[in-house]
Every structure is written in C-alpha cells, then in structure tokens.
C-alpha cells in the first residue's frame, strides 16, 4: 500500500498522468493529516467508517454515503474515527473547470463509488489506457451532476464568534447559556445571535445542536453506546437524543451505527 501511495503522490501536484487518479486505504487505526493542499482537486470518502474534514470556513463529518469535494489548492486537514477503509480521487486542475468551485459534500452514487474503485485498480505510473480514460470521464460526470448536500458545519468569520465556536467544538456538552457564551466571546448576546445567523445560516442554538449531533456520529463510529453518548453530550435524556437524531438523519443512532459497521 505504501508503494501505491508513493506512486500516487507524484500525481497530486502534477498535471501529468491520467486526468483522474485514485487509491484506496484500509487501516485498523485512525488516520489523520495536518493542514495541507494539492494542485489537483480531491474527492474522498469512506467505504466503512467515518471521517471528518476541516477547511478554513467549515467542518464536515462524512459518513460512507457522502463524499467531500475539494477544488484544487484548497487547504484542508482530516481524520478518521475508528478503523478506516476509504478512497480518494485526484482530478487534474484542467479537468476541474466545470466542477464545484467551493468545497462541498455530495451523496455518493453506486456508480461513482465503483468507478473510483475501478480507477484505483489501474497501475500507477503507466500511460492511461482507453478503458481508464472512459472511467475517468464517468467520475467527472458524477462529480459534476450529483447534488451537493448540506452535511457540514459552517464556521463564523468573526474572530470572537470563532473563539466560541471552537470552544463548543472542543466540548459540545458545555451547557453555558447564550449570555455566558457572549461574555466568553467579549460581545453582547444580541450581537452573538445576530452575527451567528448572518455568518453561518444557523441561529446559535441550532448551530450548537448540530455540533452535538455531528460529534455523536464520531462517537457512534468509535463504538460508544447510545446511552453513553447522550450522557456525555449533555442531552436531557437518552430518548431526547434518539428523537432528535431520528428527526435530523431519518433513523435511530443504533441503525446508523449498524450501517457504518456493515457498509461494504
């Protein structure tokens, strides 16, 4: 696997080679990376497990049914939660002209996943065959046509709000009320409320709720029980957590975890 990744690495910042190159990774431990960027665009997701990705103005928690698209030169970092089986596709900058201009999440179609896995099977370092070029075209068509979905957590731009947001991301169970958070950020509660909506599209309560739910996805992937998650994240009861999870994601936490564990 290391030889494959080394060979693939030669393409990440190069226009040479196929317009799309891909690889898969299987690890029995967590995978993490520092903030970095590539000259190529990148699409990546998981076959089994959960990943989180951060860019300058947002964070995504990405289950196996979604993938993150990053345009060329986009700074990002990421990590998996628990054992990781995932894939990445790198798109030459010239082929990104009609692909999304900003980072986004897309729901992965069966066709897209299979096309990426097929590309990962082609030997790196060799001139692209006609078959490989056809599969590249399928991947590009799928990225271009699949709908973007709001599955991330936008970060505010105001440095005072960012301080509050990052504190909540570090400890989603923090139960301070909005007045206390406003004091923490050195601004009025009215300004906090107004600017949070303007800069993230969520009111403060909804944003905090989303932090907890997305963190709960990570905890589910790490094998924690539903009861422990509800307690650790400060929900009033286990049933309150389950009910909110079902309203947002359309299934119970237990069902969602089963999908994470059995997705193949």
TrEMBL record:
Superkingdom, natural source: Bacteria
UniProt key word Zinc-finger: no
Pfam families linked to this entry: HTH_18 (PF12833)
Organism: Comamonas terrae
Record-annotated HTH araC/xylS-type domain positions: 162-259
PROSITE patterns per record: HTH_ARAC_FAMILY_1, HTH_ARAC_FAMILY_2
Bilayer-spanning residue ranges: none
SUPFAM superfamilies attached to this UniProt entry: Homeodomain-like, RmlC-like cupins
Alphabetized UniProt keyword annotations: DNA-binding, Transcription, Transcription regulation
Protein's UniProt name: AraC family transcriptional regulator
